Amino acid sequence: MHLSMQIGAVNDSLTWYGKQWSDELKVAVNSKDFSELPMIRGKMEAFIDRNVNEIKQMKDVGGSKDLREAELNLLYFDRDSVLPKFRSFESFNSNPNIKNAAYDEVYENTLTQTYTSLIKTLQGEEAKLKRVYDLRDKYADDNDFPKPIDK
């Protein structure tokens, strides 16, 4: 049961980091100041790396191999696919010396395209997260303890 709870805590923390980043993105888009995003992304990246190492070192307990592999796949996906999308917003600080409609339009279009690309990537994350949840339920059933309710 401890392993299942630990994986749940990792995913709760990932969600928290994602919300922090998303909240800061809203501020950044409105202020055109994206300078706070790297700090949040960097903390999330360090969190992912630390948990990848911890999960890799876990022993198979009660048939946990598939669950641990699914969690690693989710963490790798976030590190290799989602975080680069986050990073792409870090170069969006506007140039206050340029004040014209053409520049603003290009800026807005590029920002919209980057956001659309992020959303498409996050849709891939949902399937990986669902797999982790399904395997946590199976792990609970196989080891005769209550299923997590954190979905």
Could you please describe the fold and organization of this structure?
With 151 residues, the protein is mostly helical. It has one domain (2-142). The protein is built from four helices and no strands. It has helices at residues 2-31, 37-57, 65-88, 101-142. Helix 1 (2-31) runs antiparallel to helix 2. The protein is elongated, with a radius of gyration of 19 Å. The model has no long low-confidence stretch (mean pLDDT 90).
Give a concise summary.
This protein has 151 residues and is mainly alpha-helical.
The total count of helices amounts to 4
Helix content: over 70%
Largest sheet: none
Radius of gyration computed on alpha carbons: 19 Å
How are the secondary structure elements laid out?
Elements: H1 2-31, H2 37-57, H3 65-88, H4 101-142
Helix pairs in contact: 1-2, 2-3, 3-4
List keywords for this structure.
151 residues; 0% strand
